């Protein structure tokens, strides 16, 4: 019976999208949804998430409700579907009351298979009442990271989504996102009441993207040199401010380079014009704020530069991800200067998430300053481990001096393990501490709260006395970048072990540390610019 349904799904893929086969994870995801199980999908942009709910929507009886916060993109998405022969519609505040009533009529008379709505529309009592009278095939929650306050793009409108499972316990829910670390993923599931959901996490590795971080001195000269060797190639330069995009585009034009700018302060017509010229290869280079790129389907962007450092790794990863969608080699360059970090700090808003945003910014800064394979760091941020250095980043191209850090790492990890495991010491319950306390334990400090908690009774107390406090910080950062420890920013930044840690503790693999002298060198360059 189910076999039949997946065959129908394949037919629908051919009929509506013209594709012969599913990508590997799509088939498993669609099977899960067709079995009416809740599903969480984490797949990079361009991975093919939409099909995962659009095909089940076409095959299952009833109407699928798609929740998307990107009101600006809804119209385009729906028009695209309709032109493929899929009966889709949308409801949001951009429609007149008459238009909304018209759509509701079409839905009620079962002429629509996919209905896109904004989150605020979804949770309105009037709309929930409307939904109760319908036969619903599934709920799809797009951009699901917006639900979590731990995500990097939290939308308060998304917080009442628990209503869905409470009101419609029988209807399967599929949540999709391209950007969520482990903590955010856990939070999405709990917010949506989907604790039983099957999770599909595809690899975030984009091996065709080179990753480079350069000190921010003489950025403009460096950019000119970079562009000169890439005549006619499409590229995006992300800047922090609107003004910055304009002045950079002007400076490039003055050098005879065809470039334009894009930011949210421009009129919609102007923005469309710039976007279209870029997509149609008339203007190869766009200097833009983060407003540029959402929903742009251009596969041959050959490079992405960050004139300024992004505010967190999620944004950085999404922005560089716009390069090389065709799978062909593409380059990414991040300019790093300490001044940018200070500016970004000033930008942090008071949304009650200042602490979180600051932690994410710090992690971004650490990425820029570190001398560890960039891809290893990026992937470990999203919970993946890369066993070998990538060979396609600036650190791999200019390997720093390294040494066998297994013993140092083991000291730190065994201290964490002993704190967390009540059997190994005489503490009553498992305890986690932040890095500051951990280092003090390793260094055998006699600070009062440490002694009061009995941490001086742990076997590893003082085992790392020979290493300075500051050096320990840098080693722990490397462990974090290598995925050997985790910092739970949702729980006062306590340090935790990972699956990888146990391999090191069990002497199954070794740890390669970068010598601290080469890390300090990068830091000095950045502060000088
Ligand atoms: P996402 O939402 O993950 O960013 P999309 O759903 O927009 O990705 O899909 C990205 C591109 O891949 C689209 O052009 C889509 O038509 C195409 N695509 C999706 N599934 C398949 C498939 N099975 N075979 C070939 N192309 C596909
Ligand atoms: Zn590398």
From TrEMBL:
Entry's EC annotation: 5.6.2.4
Keyword set includes DNA-binding: yes
Cofactor(s), by name: Mg(2+); Zn(2+)
Residue span, Helicase ATP-binding domain: 30-198
Coiled-coil portions: none
Keywords: ATP-binding, DNA damage, DNA recombination, DNA repair, DNA-binding, Helicase, Hydrolase, Isomerase, Metal-binding, Nucleotide-binding, Zinc
Entry's Gene Ontology molecular function annotations: helicase activity
Keyword flag Cell membrane: no
Protein name: DNA helicase RecQ
Species for this entry: Algivirga pacifica
Residues shown, of full length: 1 to 529 of 723
């Amino acid at each position: 019976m189910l076999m039949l349904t997946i065959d129908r799904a394949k037919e629908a893929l051919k009929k509506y999208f013209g594709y012969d086969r599913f990508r590997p994870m799509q088939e498993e995801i669609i099977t899960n949804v067709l079995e009416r199980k809740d599903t969480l999908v984490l797949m990079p942009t361009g991975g093919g998430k939409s099909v995962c709910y659009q095909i089940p929507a076409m095959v299952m009886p009833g109407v699928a409700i798609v929740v998307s916060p990107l009101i600006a993109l809804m119209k385009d998405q729906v028009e695209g579907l309709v032109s493929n022969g899929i009966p889709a519609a949308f409801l949001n505040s951009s429609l007149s009351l008459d238009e909304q009533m018209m759509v509701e009529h079409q839905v009620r008379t079962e002429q629509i298979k996919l209905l896109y709505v904004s989150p605020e529309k979804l949770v309105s009592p009037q709309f929930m009442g409307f939904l109760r009278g319908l036969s619903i095939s599934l709920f799809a929650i797009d951009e699901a990271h917006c639900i979590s306050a731990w995500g990097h793009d939290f939308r308060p409108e998304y917080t009442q989504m628990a209503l869905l499972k409470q009101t419609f316990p029988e209807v399967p829910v599929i949540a999709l996102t391209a950007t969520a670390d482990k903590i955010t993923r856990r939070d999405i599931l709990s917010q949506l009441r989907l604790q039983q959901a099957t999770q599909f996490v595809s690899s975030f590795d984009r091996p065709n993207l080179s990753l480079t971080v350069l000190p921010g001195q003489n950025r403009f000269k460096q950019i000119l040199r970079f562009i000169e060797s890439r005549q006619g190639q499409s590229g995006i330069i992300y800047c922090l401010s609107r003004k910055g995009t304009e002045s950079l585009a002007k400076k490039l034009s003055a050098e005879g380079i065809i470039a334009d700018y894009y930011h949210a302060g421009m009129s919609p017509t102007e923005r469309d014009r710039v976007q279209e010229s870029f997509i149609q290869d008339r203007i190869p280079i766009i200097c833009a704020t983060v407003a540029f790129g959402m929903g742009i389907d251009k596969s041959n962007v050959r490079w992405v530069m960050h004139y300024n450092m992004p505010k967190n790794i999620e944004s950085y990863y999404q922005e560089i991800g716009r390069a090389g969608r065709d799978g062909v080699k593409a380059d990414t360059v991040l300019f790093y200067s300490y001044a940018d970090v200070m500016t970004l700090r000033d930008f942090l808003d008071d949304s009650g998430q200042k602490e979180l945003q600051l932690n994410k910014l710090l992690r971004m800064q650490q990425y820029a300053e570190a001398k560890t394979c960039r891809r290893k760091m990026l992937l470990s941020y999203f919970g993946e481990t890369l066993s070998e250095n990538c060979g396609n980043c600036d650190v791999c191209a200019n390997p720093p001096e390294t040494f066998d850090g297994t013993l140092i790492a083991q000291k730190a990890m065994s201290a964490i393990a002993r704190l967390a495991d009540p059997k190994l010491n005489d503490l009553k319950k498992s305890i986690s501490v932040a890095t500051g306390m951990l280092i003090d334990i390793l260094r055998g400090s006699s600070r009062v709260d440490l002694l009061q908690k009995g941490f001086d009774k742990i076997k590893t107390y003082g085992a790392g006395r020979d290493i300075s406090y500051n050096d320990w910080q840098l080693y722990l950062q490397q462990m974090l970048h290598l995925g050997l420890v985790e910092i739970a920013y949702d729980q006062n930044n306590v340090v935790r072990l990972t699956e990888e840690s146990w391999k090191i503790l069990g002497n199954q693999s070794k740890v390669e540390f970068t010598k601290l002298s080469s890390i300090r060198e990068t830091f000095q360059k950045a502060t000088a610019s």
